[in-house]
Write a structure and sequence with these properties.
It contains ten helices and six strands. By secondary structure, the chain is of the alpha/beta class. A hairpin with a 4-residue loop joins strand 4 and strand 5. The chain is globular, with a radius of gyration of 19 Å. A six-stranded mixed β-sheet has the order 2-1-3-4-5-6, sandwiched between helices. The structure holds zinc ion. The site of zinc ion (ZN) has 7 residues, from helix 5.
Length: about 240
Amino acid sequence: MHDIQRLLSGFDRFRRRYYQEDPALYRSLCAGQHPGTLVIACCDSRVDPALMLGCEPGELFVVRNVANLVPPYGRGESHQGVLAAIQFAVEQLAVERIIVLGHSQCGGIHALMRQSFTTRAEAGVVGRWVSVAEPARREVLARMPGASLDQCCRACEKAAIRISLRNLESFSCVRERRARGALSLHGWHFDMARGELEVYSPQADAFLPLCLSEPGPRRKAPAARPARPDGGIGRAAAILA
Ligand SMILES: [Zn+2]
């Protein structure tokens, strides 16, 4: 099927589901949106937050950009679109949590680590944008001398999430709501090769695995990571609390 036909068929299914079979949701959403969660995700086509997290329309407010970055508040004019969306979500929508959702095989982080861009124009625009995570690249290069590019990229993806979490603290609205206990910040990393999610634990200052179930055929659990009888849900609750 031609791509555009596939997209239109998709819209037809969407319309049947939400306007014919269950019209109540959009009738209510027309009065206003009240998403509880802001997700800052990558533009990458393989990492769709609503699809991955099983959310319905109206549940997630999503900001997507190359490499899921949050620049520091007030840094120049060029980042205003991202900053405005975050500020709107926190101040106007009063979201209860912000999740910075990073992922493996991230092209933006790969370009940052290699400092290689296809064209001069890309180096200007993409390079300037991903330089928000330059402290992550420097940290990884200093911490992991001799590591492979793949290992450096995985580490940089996670270090960049921590930097974005730190940059969120430069928003006064974020600081105020966190102080009142009305907002929590989370850093998640999706490993698309293994189908696993790791969650940043500020206490451990590390990303900890969150495996709710085994996708596909069961694999033998590695000795260093014993199988958890509750499928990791208990641990997930502890990390996310
Ligand atoms: Zn990415």
